[in-house]
Design a protein that fits this description.
One of its GO terms (cellular component) is membrane. By secondary structure, the chain is α/β, with parallel strands linked by helices. The chain has one domain: Rossmann fold. It has 11 helices and 11 strands. The strands form 2 sheets. It has a 9-stranded mixed sheet, sandwiched between helices. Strands 2-3 form a two-stranded antiparallel ribbon. Helix 2 crosses helix 3 and helix 5 packs across helix 6. The relative contact order is 0.16.
Length: 319
């Protein structure tokens, strides 16, 4: 039985192939498509499938965070491929080169879409490595398909607290009004919160996200963005970490303060939440077979800010 490494993570910066023209992002490897039917709608799930020169019999599948897509994995794909891993990198339905249907989005749905992709590729057993929103998806995938997961890596995952217990509710329509008014600067301002210190090389990821602004179906994308915000808000996984039964690595940048919906909080409450140093410890205590790696001075995306520390932690955990 082949081992799949399911990497559900955020971004690698220096290997990124950026936006070439407005509305277009060039992915680092050929893109293929899986046809699915969701709520009676035909949709396409885009993915890259990279074969190593010298296979080690294991496979890596990379899943992205909320503000990113599969293209940003170039350095991780290269690192894994050099070590013999097959690497499969999907865009979840609702993101990137995949369809953006108007459906009920759920982590259960995304996990099952991912399962269908693995079935198509005849991949049986997985290690899940998850970053940001991918941490919620990776957790749900692990809980839904425990027999297919051998290891789990959570890198600064969101969802370590239940946002709906302290972030004020807003309707999907209200969220859509924000999404449809997005600008390059608003995307950049949000991405700047991911790092203790902003560097010019991070700009490429802003350009990639902002490429959606010039697409003819941007309103459709904005609506999907609003629906998936609501998915994160309404579908916590934090209460189920103690059900995880696989060895789990937590890689936690200690300067991260990400909170989904943080701008809706009063200023005097914003610093109370998103405290990743404590959230990482709490989560590690709840997962039975867990190892916690704390990275001082590192923000929301360790593998782009300090790729050498990310790779070191990963190297010591992966089979």
């Amino acid at each position: 039985m082949r081992l799949l490494l399911l990497l559900v993570v955020g971004v690698i910066g220096s290997g990124y192939v950026g936006a070439q023209t407005p509305g277009e992002v060039t992915y680092p490897y050929p893109v293929q498509y899986l046809s699915l039917t969701i709520e009676s709608q035909p949709v396409q799930m885009a993915y890259m499938d990279v074969k190593p020169a010298r296979p080690n019999g294991q496979t890596a599948l990379l899943l992205h965070g909320k503000n990113f897509n599969g293209f940003y994995w170039a350095n991780v794909v290269r690192w894994l491929s050099d070590r013999g891993y097959r690497v499969v990198v999907p865009d979840q339905v609702g993101w990137g080169k995949s369809s953006h249907p108007n459906i009920h989005y759920s982590f259960h749905l995304l996990a099952d879409n991912t399962r269908q992709l693995l079935d198509k590729l005849k991949i049986d057993r997985v290690v899940v490595l998850a970053h940001s929103m991918g941490g919620m998806l990776g957790t749900r995938f692990t809980l839904m398909f425990p027999d297919r997961v051998s290891r789990l890596v959570l890198e600064n995952p969101i969802g370590l607290e239940d946002y709906k217990t302290f972030v004020p509710y807003q309707s999907i329509d209200a969220q859509y009004k924000k999404e449809v008014k997005a600008t390059y600067e608003s995307y950049k301002q949000y991405q700047q919160t991911y790092y203790p210190v902003w560097k010019p090389e991070y700009e490429a990821l802003v350009k990639a996200q902002a490429s959606d602004l010039d697409k003819p179906n941007f309103e459709e994308i904005a609506w999907a963005n609003a629906l998936t915000y609501q998915m994160i808000y309404e579908q916590p996984v934090v209460y189920e970490f103690d059900r995880i039964r696989v060895p789990t690595l937590l890689i936690i940048g200690q300067e991260d303060r990400t909170v989904v919906g943080k701008a809706l909080l009063p200023k005097d409450q914003q610093a109370k939440y998103g405290q990743y140093p404590e959230l990482g410890k709490q989560t590690a205590r709840r997962i039975q077979q867990s190892k916690l790696v704390e990275l001082p001075g590192v923000g929301h995306i360790p593998h782009i800010q300090t790729p050498e520390l990310y790779v070191k932690a990963l190297s010591e955990f992966l089979p």
